[in-house]
Amino acid sequence: MTDHPLPFRDPRLPFAARVDDLLGRLTLDERIAMLHQFAPAVERLGLGPFRTGQEALHGVAWMGGATVFPQAVGLGATWNEELVRRVGEAVGDEVRAKRATDDRVGLNVWAPTVNLLRHPLWGRGEEGYAEDPALTSAIAVAYTRGLRGDHPHYWRTAPVLKHWLAHNNETDRDTASSSVRPRVLHEYDLRAFRDAVRAGAVAGVMPAYNLVNGRPNHVSPLLEQHLRSWTDQSLVVCSDAGAPSNLVDSEHYFDTHEEATAASLKAGVDSFTDHGQDSSVTTGRIRGALEKGLLAEKDIDTAVRRLLALRFALGEFDPGLDPYASTDAFDTPGHRALAQEAAEQAVVLLENDGLLPLAPADGRTVAVVGLLADACKLDWYSGTLLHRSTPLDGLRERYGAENVLFAEGADRVRLRCADGWLRVPEGTAPTDGGARGAEGALDPALLAGRTDLPPLVCDDTATELALVDWGDGVLTFRTGEGRYLSVADDGYVRASADEPGGWVVQETFRREAVEGHEDGHRLVHIGTGGYVSVAADGVKVAVAGEGIPAAGATVFTTETVERGVDAVARAAAAADTVIVVAGNDPHINGRETEDRTTLALPAQQESLWRAAHAANPRTALVLTSAYPYAVADAAASLPALVWTAHGGQAAGTALARVLAGDVSPAGRLPQTWYARDEDLPGLLDYDVIGSGQTYLYFDGTPLFPFGHGLSYTRFGYTDLAAEPDGDRLRVALTVTNEGAVAADEVAQVYVRAARAEDRDLPRRKLAGHRRVHLAPGAAERLTFDVPVEELGHWSVAHDRWTVEPGTYEILAGASSADVRLTTTVEIAGEPSGARPVVRHGLEAAGYDTQQDTEILDRTKEDGDVVAPAHDGRPGELLYRACDFGAGVGGLTLTASGGGSVVVEAGGERAEAVVPDTGGPYAFRTVEAGFGPRGVHDLRVTLRGTVRLARIGFTPAGGTE
């Protein structure tokens, strides 16, 4: 007789058998309920409630205080997998520790984000690791391994990768379609997800809001065709918040929610994140889909089986055996030290003519100035700070407070209207200790939106405010006590926020000129779009249903008490050296839901470094930002330039240690820094090959290249060797510290085909990297094991991965542009040959190059077509080296829509008219005479609304 009356409770059985047993005991309603993010308890079987989703991008987020590590892009800048694995372990332990005292904390963590940093204006660039798929994969594998833990059966946490697939725009993010051709799909976007899944430390993925090739990611066939083909492990697909409803409500891809829900489940979505904690809408749709025959119970069981497997792996049913169940490692000295180490390793030295390091010395004074000089900024996916270090804090600690001067550089202003001066009433500063964190820092989550404080008034007394223009005319106002003007749900303006933040930022405003008032302006509250108006009971903003027309809004004039540039210039002139700290606030001008509009540093911050430099040539600019900036003038003018992502709780201490020389900088850029906006492709242009994006294909001169970063010492590279060994390429080189400072170096190995420019192949591609610490004079022989397949590319001619025979170059050095050593290897490979078009025809999306076309969906379930991208403008496709053999007797086009298709090859030309088929999914076959022979490039021109799926060719003399 067993001690475990129910088999699913028996830990001696394999997880799969236990899952099957439990699944068989659940009623249909209980199984349906498990498909929502918030699955209820099943009390009759002793099952507790379960939720998917816990944000943990660079620390435990949204659940109060936690250790805050550098932003994900900062972790990517470390180029250090071992460090990132330890960060993942620490975050996983803190998730477990918080779960032990707060059952709102989930163990299914939605992290990391592995979307590639293809476009530097993407608002969520802070969440990714790199523009390169190999580096992104390496960092993601490390982080997920830390989150997962190393037990063979039980998982510390269950990581879910975000966001599947080809997602790099917040503009129209739920309706925009990414046109991704096969080479970009296989060589770029899929690669970022593949290696982490294959490594076995990933529990699943989250589809992105956008569409790919005209089809929403939540019904993508690629989930089954690729994602789940990479592993035998059960993977859970969790929808993004609200995305299931978007299939009908904003995308209009399906007519009913029952159809959309059924299609999502069949495509592979297992957990529906929709309508918050109210699961009734989702479960109602699933029942409706069952009743209409759109779903079968087996579809539900497939998804529930995956969700149950996840719960077993997290130890839910074996608390006595789960090695992570008793973890209490939270805010430990080790975690604090790790946060500082990560922040130090993320610092990138961009330029330096000898100003840095700036060692403390008797009589040396340092002015730290700039809008971020005394800031420790968080982002949407940060936890609440338990500890806080700003650049000013760090420099005062390192150089001595008496040796550090400070000027923020914000303009000091007063606002006046017809009723008097804008004033913050007494009592606005919060006094309740419960709103403060462990170190006394005010918790912005508790302060923003407060309604128990008095609203602003207009009377005879003025309150001086710090005014910052963050770019694009986005303004914030802050009191001398550090409180931002904020708008609560009741519409009143109060000085109540510790920082700008929230899903809708309530602390940002914009000026609007007023006709007839030369110096007057209205204030628009960006969060609501309403106008600021002075009322008898206080200053307020129009709330829903009470819109104040522009003519009725209060007109303000601004009196400048002191210009920020003047304060900065004074501090700079009084100091030996100046550190200007500039950058972004992660809740403003570039964040989830909002892309940036320019690479330029905001004008107010541009003026500050120029003022500092004019007053003191010994000026360094530190960019603390989630994104690259085009700062060519600063790079050319200033003696030193530094970049670091927002570095979390230890950011200031870490920066000061690097500036002082306690740590030699060794961070490396994880993405290209372009020199100007004109170097960028369109935000929605996902063809990285055709439009020359990222270091892989960009043929211009970047401001700073991928992999760039300087040191306080010199490193030499010698003895590069590369030798094919079966399906591997053995690469070795020696790195020597030739200077007098112990430091890290990041050795980088790139590969390229000797004639890459002839075949639209990468100019160079990262194949290996290693961060190594070397004492002065020390040398280390580094070895890299590179799969030969890394030398290849996706052959659209043969629909497979191909490594062509020939000469390949191996390049080693300190960045993608700083190549120190080169050697070559001969690879036997397999010649791909010409396209066998007579036998296999041409899939329209398998082109080599295109102009003015887009890839769309052939059906709602699967397949691609190509169509003109712009009304009234033809689209052009090129298919290289098509083998027509002894000749063809004609062609057949499979197309929908309406228009014409012109096909040209070998001096032959055919034009076929495609009559309007009656809809995008109503295909018909059109024939035309066409008679080339031999091997030729084939050109296709598309006009009208035609959607071309396929071209078939008839051999001369009939079918084969």
UniProtKB/TrEMBL annotation:
Domain Fibronectin type III-like intervals: 745-816
Molecular function in Gene Ontology: hydrolase activity
Keyword Lipid metabolism: no
InterPro entries per record: Actin-crosslinking (IPR008999), BXL (IPR044993), Fn3-like (IPR026891), Galactose-bd-like_sf (IPR008979), GH (IPR017853), Glyco_hydro_3_C (IPR002772), Glyco_hydro_3_C_sf (IPR036881), Glyco_hydro_3_N (IPR001764)
Pfam families from the UniProt entry: Fn3-like, Glyco_hydro_3, Glyco_hydro_3_C
Keywords: Hydrolase, Signal
Superkingdom: Bacteria
Family that this chain belongs to: Belongs to the glycosyl hydrolase 3 family.
Record's protein name: Glycoside hydrolase family 3 C-terminal domain-containing protein
Organism: Streptomyces salyersiae
